[in-house]
Amino acid sequence: MPLFSIPALKGARVLITNDDGIHAPGLKVLESVALALGLEAWVVAPETEQSGAGHSLTLHSPLRWRQAGERRFAVEGTPTDCVLLAINKFMVDAKPDLLLSGVNRGANMGDDVTYSGTIAAAMEGTLLGVPSIALSQVLTPQAPVKWRTAEVHAPEVIRRLCARSWPTDVLLSLNFPDVPAASVVGATLATQGHHKVGDHLVERIDPRGRPYIWIGFLHAKTQLKEGTDMERSGAGWVTATPLTVNLTHRETLDHLSGVLDAGCSP
Q1: Whole-angstrom Cα distance, residue 162 to residue 71?
Q2: Which whole-number Å values give the CA distances from 157 to 57, 172, 189, in the listed order?
Q3: Nearest 5°: phi and psi at 89?
Q4: Torsions phi, psi of 30, nearest 5?
């Protein structure tokens, strides 16, 4: 099982991106984390918010960008576009040693990860051969986001994970609990739970009498399974969940073995 080769973090080159946009507070938090780790930070982030973009590429319109400072670029595209341009254009002289995506405003746990631009940026980095970590701060709607929790605990968690490394087809998803930094229980590995967003459709009428729909969050309570990212986060833990970019389900592959080997009848 090949593992990423991650150098000592101090002085290493890191690509920072997100899906909340170049002006997002979580991006500033992640830059602070990179500074605490002694990393050479390059920021390549979307010009505007791209939450829910998933692992999408812009294929039918040109990608435009602007330089927003030293080693800092804003891209009119998705998080995946940002990573692609960063590695193949802005940082082409030397590939980043590490990619950090986030800190996302809100959790990326359970089935939510399939929609997440934050996760997708880390997935693209992984596919391009860069060890990648997605970071998300869990929140309560209409309450202040506890950014300090991620800012305080992320450096040590990242240090420990990078010291061990992980397989080259895996990205890591970190979620910081919705508690003050001093109330965090610790950090733990967790499995991906089950939590589906987007089932709540809010129908309204605009001022011109035309109907429209907002896609809302899941409004039903979700049963939490012990040891999952959602259950552990709810108990005050920072969670780290390894996610693989290879979506093949091996058990089903074995279960269906021989079903199609005989060919198809006309």
Answers
A1: 23
A2: 30, 11, 11
A3: -135, -65
A4: -70, -35
Interacting residues of 145 by C-beta distance below 8 A, sequence separation 6+? 25, 105, 137, 139
Tens-digit pLDDT profile for residues 209-239: 999 988 876 544 566 888 999 999 999 999 9
Spatial distance between the Cα atoms of 135 and 122, rounded to a whole number of angstroms: 10
Q: How confident is the prediction for the chain on average, in pLDDT?
A: 93
Quick one: average pLDDT of 254-263? 83
| Residue from 120, 28, 36 nearest 69 by CA | 28
Amino acid at 139: L
Q: With contact defined as beta carbons under 8 Å apart, do 85 and 75 qualify? A: yes
Unique residue bearing structure tokens 């108990």: 235
Q: Report CA 141 to chain centroid distance, whole Å.
A: 20
Domains and CATH numbers, the chain: 13-193+225-247 (3.40.1210.10)
| pLDDT surpassing 60 at residue 130 | yes
Strands 132-137 and 98-105, by their bridges, are parallel
Only one residue has tokens 């080159």, namely: 13
Residue type, 244: T
> What's the Rg (C-alpha) of the chain?
20
